[in-house]
Amino acid sequence: MILDSFRLDGKVALVTGAHRGLGQGAALALAEAGADVALLERSRSEETIAAIEALGRRVHVVTQDLLTATPEDLAAAVASVVEHLGRLDVLVNNAGTIRRAPVLEHSARDWDEVLAVNLDAVFHLSQAAGRVFVAQGSGKIINVASMLSFQGGILVPGYAASKHAVAGLTKAFANELAAHGVNTNAIAPGYMATDNTAPIRADAARERSIVERIPAARWGRPSDLQGAVVFLASLASDYVNGAIIPVDGGWLVR
Questions:
Q1: Which tens digits make up the pLDDT trace of 130-178?
Q2: How many CB atoms neighbour CB 239 within 10 A?
Q3: Distance CA 238, CA 181 (A)
Q4: Please, which residues bridge with residue 110 across strands?
């Protein structure tokens, strides 16, 4: 049955930044589809843990700050998941940060911090998980890109640069790992009602201009990404490689 190819029973997924918003939605979707879930967080998210366990799935928490984590720290995080949950099949690089300032005032510190979390950590985690996946002949890397993987944005040069880079990194990994049974793809969320977009939504004029451009006529919700996450984590996407899938209510086609 075709629906069976979307099941994740017996699989283990690692999700970064799952304490709220899109990451929490992704973690719960994977658990609902049958996967056990590891969470890489700065601190334990009891809400997310409880929700996954309520579904009858196992949870393993790796406490790590992506801002300061070294490549060795992230390799150890992947090894910890394999040790505690027995395997690793899916990596969701969701965690991200943003700093807002005009391009001529964007500080070196803000630039470095955004790139550390949004790009460096994505590369090093994907590299560590990719080694596990190649060795076992299967695996799914799912990166969270952005509308700013396609556009420049306003007041967020570091974020835009990092998300363009995530799109390129997704394609680079796909080119090298697809032949080993490893799928690397990305989801590009549109304008989502999360903490990152709170300043925009608080600006009535900006919020209205955004909604007016979205054909779906509303902001996205974390639940809107869940289907795409499960698809890219499952056997149903085995011939999908290097794709950047917009989940944007039609923003890009307007």
A1: 999 999 999 999 999 999 999 999 999 999 999 999 999 999 999 999 9
A2: 7
A3: 8
A4: none
Of how many residues is the chain composed? 254
- Beta strand 182-189 with 139-144: parallel, antiparallel or unpaired? parallel
φ, ψ of residue 217 to 5 degrees: the values are: 65, 30
Core vs surface per residue 52-86: b (16+ CB within 10 A) or e: beeeebebbbbebebeebeeebbbebbebbbeebe
pLDDT of 37 over the 80 cut: yes
CA distance 104 to 96: 23
Catalytic residue among 80, 128, 149, 159: 159
pLDDT at residue 196, rounded to an integer: 77
Distance CA 33, CA 7 (A): 5
- For residue 2, what pLDDT is reported? 95
Q: Is 239 a catalytic residue?
A: no
Write the burial class of residue 208 (CB in 10 Å: 0-12 exposed, 13-18 middle, 19+ buried): exposed
Helix (H, G, I), strand (E, B) or coil at 192: strand
Q: In whole angstroms, what separates CA 122 from the centre of its chain?
A: 9
pTM score, whole prediction: 0.96
φ, ψ of residue 46 in degrees (nearest 5): -65, -35
Alpha-carbon distance 46 to 42, whole Å? 12
